[in-house]
C-alpha cells in the first residue's frame, strides 16, 4: 500500500499508506502525494516491502524504516521506526531488495546478506529464519539477491539462479513444494539475466 522513489538529487520520496511508518516521516498520516524522507542523502536505491522500506547510499550503508516486527529493519531489535535507522554492519551494499517481511543486499565482495523474517537464511541453519541483524547467505559470486515472501532468489556469476526458503506454492521453481534451507539451482532456462520475487499466493 505504499511506493517510494529516488530523485536525481539522491533524496527519497514516498507516498501511500503510513500506518506503520513506512513513508519515513515523523508522523502516521498517509499521503496521496510524494513526501520527502528526512535525513537521507546520496541515496542510490530504495525498495518497498509489505510495511517497511529500505534504502542504500553511495557510501554503501543501508537504512530501513516502518514496521520492525521480526527484525525486518535490521537494526538489532524488533522496534519499529517512522524515520530511517541504519542497518547493523552494512557498509558496502551494492544491490538491495525488500520483500514482504525481510530484506537482502549484495555487497562489493559478491556476498549476500539478509535480515527479517526470511523463512530461511540460505546457510543450512535450523530455526525460525528470523533475525534483526544481517545474516550471511552461504553463496558466493552473487550480484543480486531478490527478496519475496519468506523466500529469496539470487543471481550468481555467469547467469546461474539459486533460490531458497519457503515453497508452499512452488515459488522456488524446483519442481516441488519442499522447503529449502540452502540455495538450490533453478534450471531449465539457460543463463538468467534478472530475477524478481513476488508474494507466495
Mean pLDDT: 94
**Outline type:** globular
Provide the β-strand percentage band: 35-45%
Radius of gyration, in angstroms, nearest whole number: 16 Å
Uncertain runs: none
Helix and strand layout, with pairings?
Blueprint: E1 2-6, E2 12-16, E3 31-36, E4 43-48, E5 52-57, E6 62-66, E7 81-86, E8 93-98, E9 102-107, E10 112-117, E11 130-136, E12 142-147, E13 151-156, E14 160-165, E15 180-185
Antiparallel strand pairs: 1-2, 2-3, 4-5, 5-6, 6-7, 8-9, 9-10, 10-11, 12-13, 13-14, 14-15
Would you mind describing this structure in some detail?
This protein has 201 residues and is an all-beta fold. Helix content is 0%, strand content 44%. The chain is built from no helices and 15 strands. It has strands at 2-6, 12-16, 31-36, 43-48, 52-57, 62-66, 81-86, 93-98, 102-107, 112-117, 130-136, 142-147, 151-156, 160-165, 180-185. A four-stranded antiparallel sheet has the order 4-5-6-7, with no helix packed on it. The radius of gyration is 16 Å and the shape is globular. The chain starts with a strand and ends in a 16-residue tail after the last strand. The model has no long low-confidence stretch (mean pLDDT 94).
Amino acid at each position: 500500500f505504499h511506493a517510494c522513489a529516488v530523485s536525481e538529487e539522491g533524496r527519497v520520496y514516498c507516498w501511500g499508506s503510513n500506518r506503520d511508518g513506512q513513508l519515513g516521516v515523523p508522523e502516521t498520516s498517509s499521503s496521496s502525494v510524494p513526501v520527502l524522507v528526512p535525513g537521507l542523502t546520496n541515496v542510490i536505491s530504495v525498495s518497498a516491502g509489505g510495511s517497511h522500506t529500505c534504502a542504500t547510499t553511495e557510501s554503501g550503508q543501508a537504512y530501513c524504516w516502518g514496521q520492525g516486527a521480526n527484525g525486518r529493519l535490521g537494526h538489532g531489535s524488533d522496534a519499529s521506526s517512522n524515520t530511517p535507522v541504519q542497518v547493523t554492519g552494512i557498509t558496502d551494499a551494492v544491490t538491495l531488495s525488500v520483500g514482504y517481511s525481510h530484506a537482502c543486499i549484495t555487497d562489493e565482495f559478491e556476498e549476500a546478506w539478509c535480515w527479517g523474517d526470511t523463512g530461511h537464511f540460505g546457510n543450512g541453519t535450523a530455526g525460525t529464519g528470523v533475525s534483526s541483524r544481517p545474516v550471511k547467505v552461504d553463496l558466493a559470486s552473487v550480484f543480486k539477491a531478490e527478496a519475496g515472501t519468506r523466500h529469496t532468489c539470487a543471481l550468481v556469476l555467469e547467469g546461474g539462479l539459486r533460490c531458497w526458503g519457503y515453497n508452499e506454492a512452488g515459488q522456488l521453481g524446483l519442481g516441488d513444494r519442499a522447503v529449502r534451507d540452502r540455495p538450490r539451482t533453478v534450471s531449465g532456462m539457460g543463463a538468467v539475466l534478472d530475477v524478481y520475487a513476488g508474494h507466495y499466493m
